Amino acid sequence: MLPGMTRLGLSDTIAAVATAPGSAGVGIVRVSGPRALALADAVFRGRRAPSGTPGGRFLYGQFVLPGGEVLDEGLCLVFRAPHSYTGEDVAELQSHGSPAVLARLLTAVLEGGARAARPGEFTLRAYLGGRMDLTQAEAVLNLVNAQTDTARRQATLGLSGAVSRRVEAVQLAVTRTLSAVQAMLDYPEEGVPDEERHGPLREAERELEALIASGQAGRMATQGARLALIGRPNAGKSSLLNALLGYERSIVTPVAGTTRDYLEAGLELAGLPITLVDTAGLRDTDDVIEAAGVVQARRLAEGADLVLYLEDGSREREAAEALPSNVLTVQTKTDLGAVWHDARALPVSAVTGEGLPELRDAVRDALLHDASRQEVWLGTQRQQDAARRALEHLRASHDLPDDLAGYELEEALNALSELTGRDAQEDVIDGVFRNFCVGK
């Protein structure tokens, strides 16, 4: 048992419903800890007792209550330490997914001596038992919450240890540099080739810069992005929103100023969860309500991850609005014939669908930047913050005396250890697991 496990209550046997709330064909009560299989013996009746079954086997039988009443029939999966998710003995009791059945089965296990699991405690035990590091634990939560295939893929890569391996490569390069610096301090007369000292450090900095650059993509893959559609009245904002959604969500009329308040709609766009925001047309107006909508449209554009500025391609071009930097210009209504041309504008027709695939690709490239070509992304703000601190310490070590450079390199290694969870403080660990569901 690891130091601190008794204090945290991790020597107890814990139990929780591990499947989502609501009715389903199958539901699972997960039990983990030193008495997991003995507690399974008390509520499960089959041809063999769970405690006498080798790991990796399942048993068919009945779930019974303390008075002998049969609750349900189902399966008991047996896992033996250390070959389980938590690294402990684990029993997974699979019954029908009735909320009443699962609640009563969990109560029977708790009455037998188990403790109700805290949020994320099963994964916390896996981390403390050395089954995974913090980046993998965070990938578990991201996988549970994944809304798109991109998010799923990145979470699966994180769970496989891909992020950890990249961080370990950086740690190795920094350690080599620190060893060279310490050699200079211990044996100044010997000298250390400049490339041996600075080469690994440059490599580590490049890798950290790439990982940090992937952070925005990781955030968008897990949390989604906001995409604001702005432009003058009748520029085709509502039509484009409907075309991207594939159904009529926003009212479309030839009357200028139809959209006065903003409208939101969610979809998956280029592999990312996107919230589209249709806004009021930008123009000067004496209508108080419409003017308020224009002010709101500009505010929404400032807060969006990306802005699509729509201009009617079938009419003479008007003077452009003052726009934020994160903007793509879209030339709409190309099916009516374009009367102006701009190589920087994306031609699109909401009627025929022309240009929509290219628009989706442009949105993805604008949101993800170079990260779209990377295999692994940093998936949480905590990981990004730790990587930034490590990079700052590496950069600070340049042109310093050897003793001060050594201090900065050690601080960089501490930040990298925090990223993966090695030597992480308790408050950092608590912050990772507090958002987990109880059954995970």
UniProtKB/TrEMBL annotation:
Listed under GO cellular component are:
cytosol
Q: Which UniProt keywords apply?
A: Cytoplasm, GTP-binding, Hydrolase, Magnesium, Metal-binding, Nucleotide-binding, Potassium, tRNA processing
- Residue numbers binding (6S)-5-formyl-5,6,7,8-tetrahydrofolate: 30, 92, 131, 440
Q: Which PROSITE patterns match?
A: G_TRME
Give the cofactor note text: Binds 1 potassium ion per subunit.
Enzyme class label: hydrolase
TrmE-type G domain residues: 224-368
Q: Which residues bind GTP?
A: 234-239, 253-259, 278-281
Annotated binding of K(+), by residue: 234, 253, 255, 258
Necessary cofactors:
K(+)
Q: Which CDD domains match?
A: trmE (cd04164), TrmE_N (cd14858)
Functional description taken from the UniProt entry: Exhibits a very high intrinsic GTPase hydrolysis rate. Involved in the addition of a carboxymethylaminomethyl (cmnm) group at the wobble position (U34) of certain tRNAs, forming tRNA-cmnm(5)s(2)U34.
**HAMAP family with a match to the protein in the record:** GTPase_MnmE
Family, per entry? Belongs to the TRAFAC class TrmE-Era-EngA-EngB-Septin-like GTPase superfamily. TrmE GTPase family.
Q: What is this protein called?
A: tRNA modification GTPase MnmE
